[in-house]
Amino acid sequence: MFGKGFPFVNAAGGFYPRDEARRTPGYTTKVRVRDNYHIVGFISSGTYGRVYKAIGKNGKQGEFAIKKFKPDKEGESIQYTGLSQSAIREMSLCTELSHANVVQLEEIILEDKCIFMVFEYTEHDLLQIIHHHTQPQRHAIPAGMVRSILFQLLNGLLYLHTNWVLHRDLKPANILVTSSGAIRIGDLGLARLFYKPLNSLFSGDKVVVTIWYRAPELLLGSRHYTPAVDMWAVGCIFAELLSLRPIFKGEEAKMDSKKTVPFQRNQMMKIVEILGLPRKEHWPGLVSMPEYTQLQSMVLHRQPPHFHRGSNLEGWYQSCLKNGGYSSNSSAGTPGADGFDLLSRMLEYDPTKRITAQEALEHPYFTNGGPISGNCFDGIESKYPHRRVTQDDNDIRTGSLPGTKRSGLPDDSLLRASKRLKE
Amino acid sequence: MAANYWASTQRRYWLFSREKLAEVRERLRDRDKVTHSQFPLPDQRLLNVYFNQQLIKLGKRMSTRQQAIATAQVYLKRFYTKNEIRQTNPYLVLTTAFYLACKMEECPQHIRFVVGEARGLWPEFITPDVAKLGECEFALISEMSSQLIVHHPYRTLSELQPELPLSSDEVALAWSVINDHYLTDLPLLHPPHIIAIMAIIVAVVFKPSHPGGFPGSAQTALAGAMRDGSGMNMLAAALGDNSGAGPPRIHKLVQWLAESEVDIKAVIECTQELLSLYEVWEQYSEKHCKELIGRMVKSKNLDK
């Protein structure tokens, strides 16, 4: 379907034949996407736009994932409306970053009023791998593979954190895996530099991180983002790799019409059900959290027995190992007691006590138990399905892509500017 | 890398030798010699003073910070190493640099608001169509190869303050010197820590005598002191030998410099560059810059 003469998608997401390519006076790109890449098909649409699979041409070797940022407003004719701050952040950060466990940017092309970020192609991601292990019936991800994934993920995260980059949206779908088993942290659309930001990190965008992976201090309205928010997400991912289900699968409370950010009561409940209530004796900063009263009201209104228990993470972990068939005499091996200790340090309520990426990499879970492969598929027999690349041209032609805005995350530049205009 | 200057794109792609920078500009000039002779422009540094004033005006009614203005100035410099100024509408380019820098420095402004403010200031040169600015943003980002993260000397200054330590007056003066260095080519010629150290030395050696003058600048405070020579001699002497001559405050600083293995030669060069900026600044006329740029933009229809 996307044969040799495939006309490249134009700004509206529709087609135009090659020779009719409009050239606006003013800005014209020096490199055109179609000069370097042959589009093979469509991979996914996200909050920012869409991702296509491509192969290099005219001397460019290899497979690529091209992320096309859609213009802010889509209508009859596309106009330049200014790039979103999150696109600017992702472009500028990806241009600087270079690490074996962070997705590698090939180039950025600005063409036809759209941005095309060309990344290396990755065949898998953790969401897809976890899903594969639930089909046709649940079979646990081998312990050695979990260990390799986690080590590489932490290694990439340490690189980001030492360079003052917060990812802020770690979740299985954003952890990419190459066909040779290398982990690459992807989607830096929400990433930010946290070195003395001009504005408090809070003021930019109020809702960050997919709710299931959101750290308790964020749920409680913290204004101070620290690398600890990413470490909480890694803890959630670790738990999910072992149990094949999100550990804290809450329901998101939507923003109301006044655009005030609601307290995520249900999500907080899910955490409390496993970890018990956070206590100020253990987490001194708790009482100064903006949503502390909400937390207290949770206790007053409903008092299920588990509220007053301590943490039950160990019970959760043991039954998870049991259900997954992880044991020291199974072929899959077991993350064992070291795994539990590491998990409990990642899922630590107090962000100031939560383990850092550096400390986690030096944890006995990694230092005991032999070498860690840089290929997470090492010794794994099962083959994982390839990424689905659809060739549904209806999708590609559609001018407006419903549901592709970051929900709950209004474009921060717009939000803040409109606020300021009112002031 | 993002927060590591040594691995940054700034160091790898946007640090020029003096010769290289001259060559780059020469090549731009050679491409269109006719326009060049037809539309003479003031000294680059005077143009920079003019642009800086315009950026400050533009930012006035928005809550922008000095760092966003500084980033915008660096964007302008980078852009004009790739494009001949006489082929552009500088008012549009500087408005766009400002708009982009605000997003990068986490104090974003709505495009309509920026265009509205710019139109209020330069109605003849900015059209109400926001798409113009959006398009110029593409050009800017593309010419800078999306390398938008800028490392500034302000950070080094605040890191060194407790270490040296510096008084709040000294920090304030050093801060103004850093503001001023954006009016020169120094941001393209030296890494930010060299600039910060130069600013600290200048602030410690030449105590400010008359504050005021150009807002945020050290020009009025320093120009006289630096020109009268005694300070410069003291500086040269202090930097040239660390035998312990000169006032103890300066001696201590020089000792620290020697221990930290800073490129003293580069620091001296930066000081001279600053001094020569303050000299040329005396010829500055806002009106003159405005007229020359206006004539150029209008007769070449660059505002369309």
UniProtKB/TrEMBL annotation, chain A:
UniProt domain Protein kinase: residue ranges: 37-366
Cofactor: Mg(2+)
CDD domains: STKc_CDK8_like
Major localization listed first in the record, in broad terms: nucleus
Pfam families according to UniProt: Pkinase
Region (Disordered): 390-423
Family, per entry: Belongs to the protein kinase superfamily. CMGC Ser/Thr protein kinase family. CDC2/CDKX subfamily.
Protein name stated in the entry: Serine/threonine-protein kinase SSN3
UniProtKB/TrEMBL annotation, chain B:
Main location: nucleus
GO-annotated molecular function: cyclin-dependent protein serine/threonine kinase regulator activity
Keyword vocabulary terms for this entry: Activator, Cyclin, Nucleus, Repressor, Transcription, Transcription regulation
Alphabetized Pfam families for the sequence: Cyclin_N
GO biological-process terms attached to the record: regulation of transcription by RNA polymerase II
Compartments where found: Nucleus
One GO CC annotation: nucleus
Domain Cyclin-like: 53-142
InterPro entries: Cyclin-like_dom, Cyclin-like_sf, Cyclin/Ssn8, Cyclin_N
Gene3D superfamilies registered for this protein in UniProt: Cyclin-like
Protein function: Component of the SRB8-11 complex. The SRB8-11 complex is a regulatory module of the Mediator complex which is itself involved in regulation of basal and activated RNA polymerase II-dependent transcription. The SRB8-11 complex may be involved in the transcriptional repression of a subset of genes regulated by Mediator. It may inhibit the association of the Mediator complex with RNA polymerase II to form the holoenzyme complex. The SRB8-11 complex phosphorylates the C-terminal domain (CTD) of the largest subunit of RNA polymerase II.
Family: Belongs to the cyclin family. Cyclin C subfamily.
Description of how the protein assembles with itself and partners: Component of the SRB8-11 complex, a regulatory module of the Mediator complex.
Name of protein: RNA polymerase II holoenzyme cyclin-like subunit
Organism: Penicillium argentinense
Lineage: Eukaryota, Fungi, Dikarya, Ascomycota, Pezizomycotina
